[in-house]
Every structure is written in C-alpha cells, then in structure tokens.
C-alpha cells in the first residue's frame, strides 16, 4: 500500500450492507436497499471504490457509482471523485480524522438529460464503528429541497 493512503486503510475491503440500507427524501417514498462496496488499492496514492446497490427483494440493480479517494500527502485532506449511473459526476472534499471521513461536494456535473430535480449539494460521512462495521450517511440538497439526510447504511466486512 502506498503510505500516503495509510490513514484510510480502515476502509479497505469488501463490505456488504447488514442490515439493508435505508433511503428517505421528501420527494421519495422511503425505501431499503442492499449494497456491496469494494474499496481497494493498487499501490498508487489513492484508493479505488465501487458501490453497487440492489433491490432487497428482487436483487435488481439500483444505484451504482465508482471512483477514487485521494489524500493530499502529509495532511488529513481528502478528495472523493465519483461517477454515478444516474449521470452525475462529483468531487467531494473533506477530512479524515481517525476512523471517520467527512466530505462535502466541491463540484457536481451531470449529463444534459439528467432527471430533475437536480442534485446541487452532497455530504457524506463514513465511520468505522466500535463493532468494526463501516457506516455511511449521505445527505443532499436538490433544486427543490434543502439539505436533508438521504441514505444511511451499515456494512459488515466480508473480505480484507
């Protein structure tokens, strides 16, 4: 592992949602989802990730995103770069402190025919809890709604 990403090593592995994640938003019916997360490294000064969610009953694919997590050398500053199957590409920036990563959108771009309302701001918090499980909370603001929690999911590690 590149020593630059050592402060994020607690995120490495394959993680499965346990229990199913929960999604809410004022313009959506509440929902649940299963999610598989792969966070890996190939020796470069960044981590690679993919998030793949599925309907809990039908196992039909839902949301997908993949990208990179970079750490500014010799700091706790982090950049999270992702491309999503919804047509959104985003850069989030923030800080890692111990076993917690808090990031918020720096820039969001979308395809020209992305579904409205458009996402205007995103925040994420990842943390490794006392049971060794990874938690993720995502909040977002759209063109019609203020910043509101959207997703919460807890993952158990299935491979290192």
From TrEMBL:
It comes from the Eukaryota. SUPFAM superfamilies: Lipocalins (SSF50814). It catalyses: peroxynitrite = nitrate. Keywords: Cytoplasm, DNA-binding, Heme, Iron, Isomerase, Metal-binding, Nucleus, Phosphoprotein, Zinc, Zinc-finger. InterPro entries: Calycin, Nitrobindin, THAP4-like_heme-bd. GO terms for molecular function: DNA binding; isomerase activity; zinc ion binding. The keyword Zinc-finger applies. The keyword Transport does not apply. Its cofactor is heme b. It holds the Pfam family THAP4_heme-bd. Pathway: Nitrogen metabolism. GO terms for cellular component: cytoplasm; nucleus. Residues 5-157 form the THAP4-like heme-binding domain. It is found in: Cytoplasm; Nucleus. Its main location: cytoplasm. In the C-terminal section; belongs to the nitrobindin family. Heme-binding protein able to scavenge peroxynitrite and to protect free L-tyrosine against peroxynitrite-mediated nitration, by acting as a peroxynitrite isomerase that converts peroxynitrite to nitrate. Therefore, this protein likely plays a role in peroxynitrite sensing and in the detoxification of reactive nitrogen and oxygen species (RNS and ROS, respectively). Is able to bind nitric oxide (NO) in vitro, but may act as a sensor of peroxynitrite levels in vivo, possibly modulating the transcriptional activity residing in the N-terminal region. Homodimer. This is Peroxynitrite isomerase THAP4. It comes from Myodes glareolus (Bank vole).
